[in-house]
Amino acid sequence: MRATRRLTATTTSLTLAVAGLILSTGPAAHAAGCSQSYLPLPDPTCQPGAYNPDVTQSTIDSTICVSGWTSTVRPPSSYTSALKIQQIAQYGYSDTSTADYEEDHLVPLELGGAPKSAQNLWPEPRYGNETAASKDSVENKLKKAVCDGTVSLDDARSAIAEDWTTALSSLGLG
User: Fold this and answer.
1) Spatial contact of 174 and 145, defined as CB atoms under 8 Å apart
2) What is the number of other CB atoms lying within 10 angstroms of the CB of residue 168?
């Protein structure tokens, strides 16, 4: 068991080091310095959010407001896991255990966020005062408000992209 943990830690560290090397020498080098100072939010320079062009106010009844629709656009874990490793390196997190982060959409799929855009996905910590699990309840309440016509899609997207911790109160929902 101990050897397995050591091997896992070594593999994760090596993978993160390689990801950092690739990021610092490749076309994404500009993003290699994402700041943790915005936590529990992502660095807006690295992840400003991005939208799925197929989801608009006029298409919500055939997209996000259909039960199970997000499963049709959710990227595979092979994609998000690889991106998570790269982005943990970009953020310079001292905790490099991928299990401690959720590769989360800033603008959630439930509000028509871009499924595979690195500008919309980031390694959100599962620890701290405002966790990935806390954001999930905000996403669900915003989707309900959009689908019942209480809030427009654009307003919900803007509020969650700006600051998910205040999105509900800024829209008069919390």
Assistant:
1) no
2) 19
